[in-house]
Write the structure tokens for this entry.
Amino acid sequence: MAEAALKAAPDTEQELTDGFHLIIDALKLNGVKTIYGVPGIPITDFGRMAQAEGIRVISFRHEQNAGYAASIAGFLTKQPGICLTVSAPGFLNGLTALAHATTNCFPMILISGSSEREVVDLQQGDYEEMDQLAVAKTMCKAAYRVLHAQDIGIAVARAIRAAVSGRPGGVYLDLPAKLFGQAMNADAGQKSLVKVIDAAPAQIPAPDAVRRAIDVLKSAKKPLIIIGKGAAYAQADDAIKAFVEKSGAPFLPMSMAKGLLSDLHPQCAGAARSTVLKDSDVVVMLGARLNWLLSHGKGKNWGDAPKKFIQIDIEPKEMDSNVEIAAPVVGDIGSCVNALLNAMGDKWTPAPSDWIGAVSKKREENIAKMAPRLMNNNSPMDYHGALGVLRTVIKERPDAILVNEGANTLDLARGIIDMYKPRKRIDVGTWGIMGIGMGYSIAAAIETGKPVLAVEGDSAFGFSGMEVETICRYNLPVCIVIFNNDGIYRGTDVNTAGSDPATTVFVKGARYDKMIEAFGGVGVNATSPDELKRAVNAAMDSGKPTLINAVIDPAAGSESGRIGNLNPQSVVKKKK
Ligand code: ADP
Ligand code: TPW
Ligand code: MG
């Protein structure tokens, strides 16, 4: 107990530390450089002190955006991103992002101040009263509460280890207000801190599992490798490239794995997606799940050809989650891929050339079909004209980070904008959520130091739009392009039952560019691909916070983008 530590030397003047400083010291000892959060009781002074002690503390306008920033910092760096929130409502605002981190397998720690335990537990109505630990537990990998200053070191160590080891995810750390001011002897405090050794230990796959996978791969006539964001996260880029090239198989990158191998790589089957899913006979899943994004590995998208799956994943429970896995390989991507490469030896026969040829032919056809549409200079713009411009912007700046959300704006940008380097495309992820845009942009700029291009549907942007002030305040090199089609999916819906607007439309002709001007950023209204090109190039070259309102034909989009089939259908006929 802190009291005991104080009593130990009643007469001598002893140096004290407290909860505030021990938390900061524990984070610094473990390499935490940045905290994303929103200040308030009981963590305002903590944020100030952390800043004074050299941690970068980025203050947001809403905790959800700070949380998304922390989650993507985790993805980009393999270190847990830290989000700091106040009690009850601030905590709940951050909780969405914690659940998102867990769902997407990103390491993140939500640190939240909380109210007095005694009052909360007796439900006596404290300021911002809530049993936060109980609420958080269902949303994350692990949740801990610290009651005593001398436990801070262990708690921070556990939180870090829980976030990054095995399948990464979100961790909650509950810090009641009283903890911050709790005093203890400074020496004892220092000794109580823990530097986490080997936070995410390598997980070597079993030799039998590797042999089994190689046997299945050898039997393939039409192999396919699906690369997911778990592979991008793993930062085993060279080994993955060597494995894919040695196999000779076409590869299909999932959204956030685009660029792990260049989209222009001759084996990339991104533009022949339906062909490779249907016709392949052996599918290697590399850090990707057979969830809704891959139609659960079955059904008409996968065709009738019988398939065998090899799955490489750090999470054993992922195997057989949707279909039978013929060869599960459990371990970290780097270790697994290196083991497979070794087992393939020097005399591996690459995938049959007729299969490669068929996939390449399909890819070239699809690319050729798309090409003229990307060059149109229509005004107002359609998605293809505008995205054709952005595609070139990224081609000329392969180091830039692309943030992307929306429906049509997402689905079309994913297909059209080629990526060239690993971990440069970050987007709505496993849940397909709106609202990641500005949080991701801020963290991407801060963690990588590279320019950021955020391609945003007008609806999607609205979920985090207030953070343009944050972008201006920290003067971050972020260029936001809003695909403004006056609404969700389209701006043309009409409510025939009354005078209220239809549920999916927004103010027509809105000028989002004016928003950033309020905070000293550069606003541009772009009505044609040429105007868009000039504005984006200027923004990316200057690094000035910029928001471009790209005027898109309100009729250009389709319902829910590419996933309209997921909308439930009513059996009752529409009223005339
Ligand atoms: P995508 O959405 O790109 O298809 P998912 O998020 O569905 O990707 O899948 C990522 C998978 O990667 C998860 O099953 C996760 O357990 C796994 N994973 C994450 N990190 C690693 C790692 N270092 N090594 C192996 N597998 C990992
Ligand atoms: C947290 C539902 C999916 S896509 C979308 C919404 C509201 C917006 C689409 O319009 P946008 O793009 O961004 O203008 P475009 O180009 O098609 O017009 N709340 C959350 N997540 C999701 N996914 C939704 C609602 C949704
Ligand atoms: Mg829209």
